[in-house]
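Weekly structure sync, notes
Attendees: PL (lead), two postdocs, one rotation student
Agenda item 3: pending single-chain targets
PL asked that the sequence for the first pending target be pasted directly into the notes so everyone works from the same version. It is reproduced below exactly as submitted, 82 residues in total.
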Amino acid sequence: MRIMKLRHAIIAATLLASTLFAALPMNPAPPVRTQTGQDIVWVTASGKKYHRQDCRYAKTATPITRAEAEAKGLTPCKVCKP
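Predicted structure, written out during the meeting:
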């Protein structure tokens, strides 16, 4: 019986923590720009999207300007929304 109460308390605490965490605002890093004011985005060697530097899909990406990415036919990532 005691184990059941402990189990329910752990489940309740986990649900509460996940609800509170989901309510926190996400503050992405500010966009990176060149000295001339062009936006820098990150692209992977084989991808069809461009990303923000802090995107989970940009771990092995290299930086280029947004204009270069769009000229290559790349589109913005729907996760990080650069």
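Discussion points:
- The first helix runs from residue 2 to 23.
- The two ends are 52 Å apart (CA to CA).
Action: rotation student to compare against the earlier draft before next sync.
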